[in-house]
Amino acid sequence: MSLTFKINYTDGLARNGVVKTAHGEIRTPAFMPVGTAATVKGMTPEAVAQTGADILLSNTYHLMLRPSAELIAKMGGLHKFMNWNKPILTDSGGFQVMSLSKLRKISEHGVVFKSHLDGSEYNLTPERSMEIQHLLGSDITMAFDECTPFPVSEEEAEKSMQLSMRWAQRSKDAFIKREGYGLFGIVQGSVFPKLREESANALKQIGFDGYAVGGLAVGEGQELMFSVLDFTMPHLPADRPRYLMGVGKPDDIIGAVQRGIDMFDCVIPTRAGRFARGYTDEGEKNLRNAKFADDPRPLQENCPCPACTSYSRSYLHHLFKAEEMLGATLLTWHNLTFYQQLMQGLRDAIELQKLNEFAEGFLVKYRKEQCPD
Amino acid sequence: MSLTFKINYTDGLARNGVVKTAHGEIRTPAFMPVGTAATVKGMTPEAVAQTGADILLSNTYHLMLRPSAELIAKMGGLHKFMNWNKPILTDSGGFQVMSLSKLRKISEHGVVFKSHLDGSEYNLTPERSMEIQHLLGSDITMAFDECTPFPVSEEEAEKSMQLSMRWAQRSKDAFIKREGYGLFGIVQGSVFPKLREESANALKQIGFDGYAVGGLAVGEGQELMFSVLDFTMPHLPADRPRYLMGVGKPDDIIGAVQRGIDMFDCVIPTRAGRFARGYTDEGEKNLRNAKFADDPRPLQENCPCPACTSYSRSYLHHLFKAEEMLGATLLTWHNLTFYQQLMQGLRDAIELQKLNEFAEGFLVKYRKEQCPD
Questions:
Q1: ipTM confidence score
Q2: Angle (CA) A349 A351 A355, round 5°
Q3: What is the pLDDT of residues B191-216, one digit of tens each?
Q4: Which CA distances in Å does A108 have to A60, A159, A198, A201, B181?
Q5: pLDDT < 50 positions in chain A
Q6: Which residue(s) pair with B142 in the sheet?
């Protein structure tokens, strides 16, 4: 038995469920903070857990380059290495190879590339990606795929998708099954309904523990992204978790949950935290703004995070002006808490069959105050 | 009643005592972590307290420039602003004006200087330093003094010391007494026994709640520093706390405690932590060293800090190689814990009348393994 998924409630297309893995349960809809290099930047794992995160994402590409999957395995696996005892999902490396590495050469076999760190050459194939994620000990392994560029012609998108589907089969063949560990396939096909349908069907044919929608959040905009979800989701099995990769802002997440997505990951809350941008019920706030210099209020009333319970906007402003590390730590803590509170709100709303009311209430307030500050 | 000091045990010249302040007790000998800009770099205040620190030091010079003492007072004072509810000592600004600011002009009245941040002009006098420290709400206020350069002629040292003594009187006159808050005088006189004696006598004449030894740890070396303590300490009142400013490495602290010093502050453990240097029973270790890449052991066996209880040397090495903030946080946490464990060891040893044995045991092990790694 790999990992299991149980749906407890539905509201429209949205689902409230639980994924059970070797390292515990993931309440869905779930948001996964990103711990690229075996650490969520600026946070201790205890702090990440305190925000309410059930699972985090780490990056095959970064870890294979430094410190290497073999070293992490020697140190007892990624959970022990980074002191995170809850579930971990790792991406396959495909996306970062395309976006970060140099001198890529893609063939049927896989990708040969040079490290962005020191220029040394690496070979990444579906089989090697499965081996790396196995060595890391990921609870959820992602199939190795090619990240289709955007925009792209339908012909190119089809060629890329077909390659990813052959790599998906090889990923499945190479994946070593373990109790409580699972493998997710990734639907490609860019913005073309026919290709997305074909891709979804190919993956179902192979059979995966969960299904991700890839190739989005690459500049296509929210409207087009939602449209792709609208025509892709009906082709995904209803009884398996669905993961929208690399998404997104709060309003992206709400719309995707309303369309039946169960899992998300994104660097936005952590990256924004390091760059003085705080998420609140009233939209984003730039803590560097001079108007916060003497503002004694918490960043967000009733937020349970330490940035809000123990400090003023004035202090956060001071930390960013003085370039003190604690500013990034506190604001990342807040943003991750804000995201997890949003996910809890979505889960509760689905349970109560009030998802649309919740979404509307959130978005009206969130967008009302949006202004360049 | 300002702050009180009670000596519980003595061993030779060393004392184990308690300073009681408005924000709680300070067990002595005490080490004060430095929170320059209203934050101990990379640490939450909860983490600082967990290391065992009873008090921290913050900097008048930095805070007067940014965000300003008036703003901190408006936000409820420094304790509330930075969420640290234990005692705080602030320096007077004299040292940083000399070491950091530009275009200084020193007169009998005080110092006019330009901010190192934006070049704007400030005026710092004994009266203004007392006002700033009062606005911050420091439990222990330091008298405003001139930091005598090193090396210096006896004539120059005397001139500087005499100015500092006149400023000490003005500091005392301007200091506003409050229950549980105290003012410390600073002995100057460089390395000259006669000047140190004169300075100590001048301060005793004025009368302070504690006495600091200033103008050391400025490049004179440990031997000369200990020698200055040897001829200065007999002139300080036995019933008041004694504070050696800006010191030091573990062996400096041990030698100074053996000579009767009760309080210390230093950026070494925090700065070293940000630069990958960890303090251990076996000396300093550079966590960037390749030999730690696959070392599964904790940095220091039996250390109660999270860096040692939850992570390997291998992981710490990885964090520094990947330039991840968590490396600085964990190693600062460790170094501060190491320092506080040393202070507890010193306090226990004094109570048991075994200070010399403790010092010898510590230093033999600490120095044995010292090697450039």
A1: 0.97
A2: 30
A3: 999 999 999 999 999 999 999 999 99
A4: 20, 11, 20, 21, 75
A5: 371-373
A6: B184
pLDDT class of B94 with cuts at 50, 70, 90: confident
Q: Which residues contact A145 (CB under 8 A, 6 or more apart)?
A: A92, A94, A164, A167, A168, A186, A188, A214
Q: Does domain B4-266 have CATH number 3.40.630.30?
A: no
Cα dihedral B333, B335, B339, B342 sign: positive
Pairing mode of beta strands B242-244, A140-142: unpaired
By CA distance, what is B67's nearest residue in A?
A318
**By the 8 A CB rule, do A330 and A306 touch?**
yes
Q: Do A66 and B37 touch (CB under 8 A)?
A: no
Nearest to A79 by CA among B312, B287, B297: B312
Question: Under an 8 A CB cutoff, do B67 and A318 touch?
Answer: yes
Specify whether the CB–CB gap between A111 and A163 falls below 8 A: no
- The answer to whether the Cβ–Cβ distance between B75 and A321 falls below 8 Å is no
pLDDT, one tens digit per residue, over A44-96 is 999 999 999 999 999 999 999 999 999 999 999 999 999 999 999 999 998 88
CB atoms within 10 A of CB B305: 26
Q: Which residues of B touch A37 (CB under 8 A)?
A: 318, 322, 324
**CB-based contact B216:B265 (threshold 8 Å):** no
| Residue A34: DSSP 8-state | B
8-state DSSP, B44: -
B245: Cβ contacts below 8 Å, ≥ 6 apart: B91, B95, B186, B212, B213, B214, B216, B217, B265
Chain A, 146 to 205: residues with Cβ < 8 Å from chain B are none
Q: Mark whether A91 is an active-site residue.
A: yes
**How far off is chain A from B238, nearest CA to CA, in Å?**
40
- B11, B91, B145, B209: which one is catalytic? B91
Pick among B308, B312, B324 to test the A interface (most A CBs inside 10 A): B324
Q: Where are the domains of chain B?
A: 4-266, 275-363
Which of A82, A312, A325 is closest, CB to CB, to B75? A312
Report residue B135 as tokens: 């606005």
Bigger pLDDT: B104 or A197?
A197
**Can you name the CATH fold of A4-237?**
TIM Barrel (3.20.20)
Q: The dihedral of CA A283, A285, A291, A294: what is its sign?
A: positive
The type of residue at B290 is: A
